[in-house]
Amino acid sequence: MTYLETTAEFYSEVAQTPQVGLCCVQSSPLQLPGLKIPPLMAEMNYGCGTTVHPTEL
Fold first, then answer.
1. What pTM was computed for the model?
2. pLDDT tens for each residue of 14-28
């Protein structure tokens, strides 16, 4: 199995059955005006990260 297949399988499984322990972000680190993260989105955040630094927002 290639790393792409492994990644696709892993994220397919956790997308169908969210696993709270995989989530690196338990709360929003910043308070931005008007930013509201729906609970469902927070539950499905698996810490993939971003290349955008919070100060650039």
1. 0.35
2. 778 877 666 555 555
Place of tokens 């930013």: 35
Which are the contacts of 54, defined by CB distance < 8 A and separation ≥ 6? 29, 30
As separate numbers, helices (DSSP H) first and strands (DSSP E) second, the chain gives 2, 0
| 19 vs 43: CA distance, rounded Å | 8
The CA-atom distances, in angstroms, between 11 and each of 16, 19, 32, 39, 54 are: 8, 11, 29, 19, 25
Nearest-angstrom CA–CA distance, 12 and 16: 6
Domain residue extents for the chain? 3-56
